[in-house]
Structure formats: structure tokens, C-alpha cells
Amino acid sequence: MVFGGGALLISATLAASTFVIARHYLLDQRQQAAIRQTYLDADLVHARLSSSGARIPAALDAADPPQGGALIVRRDGQWFTTALGTGQETIPAGLRQRIRSGRPGYVRVMVDGSPTMIIGVPSEGTRTEFYRVTPLTELDDTLRALSTVLVFSACLAAGAGIMLGLWASRKVVQPLNLVASTAAEIAGGQPDTRLPATEDPELTTLVGSFNSMVDSLQQRVESDARFAADVGHELRSPLTTLVASVELLEQHRRELPARAVQAIDLVSGDLARLQRLLDNLLHMARTDAGLDLSDRAPVPLRELLLHTLARAGKPARLLRDETTGVTVHGDKVLLERAFANLVDNADRHGEGLVAITVQRDEDEVLVVVDDEGQGVPVEDRQRIFERFATSRTARGSSSGTGLGLSLAEKTLSAHGGTLWCTDRPGRGARFVAGLPVAAP
């Protein structure tokens, strides 16, 4: 549209300038020709009157009146004309006053709705006034035709500018759209996506730089994921040893003094938290490297949620399934872990799980997890899905790892779903997980 607007502005300016110049030139040429002819006719009439003593009507007949116009003479107070209906009333009073003062002049007026030029010259001093009434209808028609042609040309140029602009913008924007779509695919969990090779020399550098940048980023992500996985595996063995040692001590806690039992309880709690953190870190490393969804299969959602509640030690009555049995397509293990994280979050930070409600919304199923805590402030409802993030307002226990919600959100996103937080009616927080329903 910028090209079209620029083309329209330029063409309109040129058209207007051309029309003004052409109009001025044509009017000036017609005016000069009419003035010369007026003097010739006035001299001819004067010569006839002086040499042969002819009467004024006869002298006017020998002159050359303009087509559609008239020659008008005033002599000794009497008016004579070559055309009926065109007389002294046609001549403006200002022009008559000028001629009577001995000065030639002209005016352009409308006579019977038509543009007309009237030229007057004095003759024999101020005794005789000679006027030539010249219609400008033909010139006006010419200017109208010229204006039509110029307007059409301006519109044609604007249209050509729009077409050129569309072509140029597509040529420029198409590669950018391709870059944007490729970047969106990479951000959506397809890190192996790259820009296709091109033969356009202007785009070769862009394509090469983009692909090299993505390769470097992927290598960095994979390196970080490998590092986290390696660290996790290295920590798993000593952590397992510590857990086994603490379990052994707990078997003899009756034989230990009270302070030792208290220390064992503290160590046991911290080890449990450290073990959860390590498991989440390993899972996060696998998530960063790209979730393997090759084992995706139809998963009955009700059975999955019942199994999740059972593993968390929750009664089945907390599940409220408002559907007739919905199936989703995904990795059962990953989905169960995501919902387990939501249940764990409700217990640790929401003062206990209230209910899990399953609702059908056209082609999507919503899993609503309610707790009875203090809720999540509006300003924190996006931030809590970041790694190691917690609400600025304390919510229940602080023994969480800060990774559960992030892992749940990434897992659901990889399955084409969403996860968001809102208020539970009355009191508490509500986490809503949306997943596409599997095709029958």
C-alpha cells in the first residue's frame, strides 16, 4: 500500500501540474490569437467605414466573426452586432467602461452557461468601440478531455504502483515469513527444523547465518542437557547411599537419643526433597533435549487420572468426570507425571487437593485441579510456570523444587495442550490443563 500511495501521490501531482500548465498555455494561446484577430477585424471595419463610406452592418459582414460568437460595434451611441441575441447586454459594464476610457481589455465570463472570452478595443479615439465575443466551449471540452485522460492515467499509475508494491513486498516479506514460521516450529518443540537452501544470492547469507545460529543454539542446549544429565547421574549414586543409610538409622531410631532422632528426621526430609529435585532435573534435561513422543498412543483420561490419584494416596472420589469417557493421544508416562506434579503442587502449596474435574469443550478436554490454599496473585500467574519460580506470596509448604509446574506446562505443550492458572470460586487456586481430544 505504501507503493500504491506513493504512486498515487506522484501521479496525481504530475497530472495536476500537467493540467494547470496545459490549461494556462491553451488559454494564453487562444487569448493571444483572439486579441490579434480582434485588432484585424477592428482595422478592417474602420478601413471600410473610412474608404467607401459603407454602413456599419455592411462593414461587419466583411469581417470574420468567430464561429458561435459575434462582433459588436458601438458607434456614436448606437450598437450593432453580427448575431441575434448577442448584444450590448453581453458585455460587462466594467469592460465597456475600460474601452470608453481608451484602453483595450478582455474578460472571461459565462454566457448562457458557456465559457466565453470578450475582447474590446477602442477605435477612432473613443468614438467607436469594437468587441469580439469568442466562445471557449471547444477549449473547455478539450480541457475536460485532458483532465479525464490525466485522471485515468493517475489511477492507472496508482494501480501499477500497488501491483509493483505487492510484488516487491511479497518478494521481501516471503523470506521473513519463512524465517518466522521456522523459528516458531523450533520454539514449538521441533529443534531439527531448518531453513531450506536457496539459490537467491541475496538470501544465501541470511539462510546460512540462521541455520548456523540454530545449530549453535541446539548444540548449546544439548550440551547443557547432557551436563545436567551427567551431574544427575553422578549424584544419584551417593544420594542413593545416603538414603539407604538414613533408612538404616531410622530402623534403630528407638535406640537413639532424641536429638539424634530429630537430626535424622531433618536429614530424611532434605534427602527426600533432594531426590525429587534430582528426578525433576533429569526430567527437565530430557525435556530440553526434546521430549520423545514416539510412544504416543490413545490414553483413557479417566483411568490415567485415577491412577495418578492412587499413586499420590488420594481417594478416587476426588475425581469428578463430567464426560462420557474421553481419550487423549499422548505418552501415558509423561502425562501421568504432569498431572502428578499438579496434584503435588496442590498438596504442597495449596493446602491440599480439593478435586480434579474433567470437562469436555468441543474438541478439547479440560482437566481442572482445585486446591484450598490462598490462591496465586494475578502478577505471578505467568511467572510460576518458569523454572525454580515460586509465588511472591507464600503458598503452603516451601519444600517444593520449583520445577513441577514448569515440567507440567512443557509436557502439556508438547502434546498440543495448554496450562494456565486462575482463581477457584470461593477460595484457592485453580490450574486448568487443556488437551486435544483423540480422534475416534
Secondary structure topology:
Layout: H1 2-51, H2 56-62, E1 70-75, E2 78-81, H3 93-100, E3 105-111, E4 114-123, E5 128-135, H4 137-187, H5 201-251, H6 258-288, E6 297-300, H7 301-311, E7 319-321, E8 327-330, H8 332-349, E9 353-361, E10 364-371, H9 404-414, E11 418-423, E12 429-436
Parallel strand pairs: 7-9
Antiparallel strand pairs: 1-2, 1-5, 3-4, 4-5, 6-8, 9-10, 10-12, 11-12
Helix pairs in contact: 1-2, 1-4, 5-6, 6-9, 7-8, 8-9
Notes on the structure:
The protein has 3 domains: 2-144, Beta-Lactamase (2-Layer Sandwich); 201-288, Helix Hairpins (Orthogonal Bundle); 297-436, Histidine kinase-like ATPase, C-terminal domain (Heat Shock Protein 90), CATH 3.30.565.10. The radius of gyration is 48 Å and the shape is rod-shaped. It has helices at residues 2-51, 56-62, 93-100, 137-187, 201-251, 258-288, 301-311, 332-349, 404-414, and strands at residues 70-75, 78-81, 105-111, 114-123, 128-135, 297-300, 319-321, 327-330, 353-361, 364-371, 418-423, 429-436. It has 440 residues and is α+β, with helices and mostly antiparallel strands. The strands form 3 sheets. A 5-stranded antiparallel β-sheet has the order 2-1-5-4-3, sandwiched between helices. The model has no long low-confidence stretch (mean pLDDT 82). The longest helix has 51 residues, at 137-187.
